[in-house]
Write a structure and sequence with these properties.
The protein has helices at residues 9-70, 80-92, 107-114, 116-133, 158-173; strands spanning 78-79, 97-103, 139-144, 147-153. By secondary structure, the protein is an alpha+beta fold. It is rod-shaped and about 130 Å long.
């Protein structure tokens, strides 16, 4: 017994073809929307990263401008106004210490005899002696010209103060 069935291909394949086309269109739309979504997220992330970089750069520039506005250009010590403000803030917050004022004797004669470049070198050598003597939390100030001030935080004992001043003068004598 042999049985032969004839199937009309249009009836059989048309719904299948239609289903495949609909599936491909839906799949294409899903891929398109996912790609659009992820590309949009990527673009927003890149924009956010650029904004963060600009903010970081502006903060860094702000800190640099602040430092430049508060320090003496030649010595990089605090200028008079900023130094006085810092010492005032330390005193208001009960940070006692020792204040030392230094003036380079006969500095005008150094400038007159050897020139301003040599005078600048003398000032920088004295600043190096100050930095080598005092701590980073002490406030070192260029008061003007050849005058300097230092507020040594926590130095309240006279003998300790004398020892620090002696050490500073020893460094200056060895210049």
């Amino acid at each position: 017994v042999v049985s032969i069935s004839l199937i009309n291909a249009d009836i059989w394949y048309r719904p299948l073809t239609r289903a495949i086309v609909i599936f491909c269109v839906i799949l294409g739309l899903i891929v398109f929307f996912l790609a659009f979504f992820f590309l949009n997220m990527y673009a927003k992330n890149r924009a956010l990263q650029r904004a963060q970089m600009r903010i970081h750069l502006e903060e860094s520039l702000g800190e640099q401008w602040k430092a430049l506005s508060e320090t003496d250009r030649m010595t990089a010590l605090f200028d008079r106004v900023s130094g006085e403000r810092m010492v005032d803030e330390l005193l208001k917050s009960s940070n006692t210490g020792m204040f030392l004022e230094i003036d380079i004797d006969q500095f005008k004669s150094i400038n007159d005899s050897y020139g301003h470049q040599t005078g600048d070198q003398v000032i920088l050598a004295v600043v190096d002696a100050l930095r080598a003597t005092f701590r980073s939390n002490d406030v070192m100030i260029r008061l003007g010209g050849d005058e300097f001030g230092v507020y040594a935080v926590g130095i309240i004992d006279r003998n300790m103060g004398r020892a620090i001043i002696s050490r500073l003068f020893e460094k200056i004598r060895n210049l």
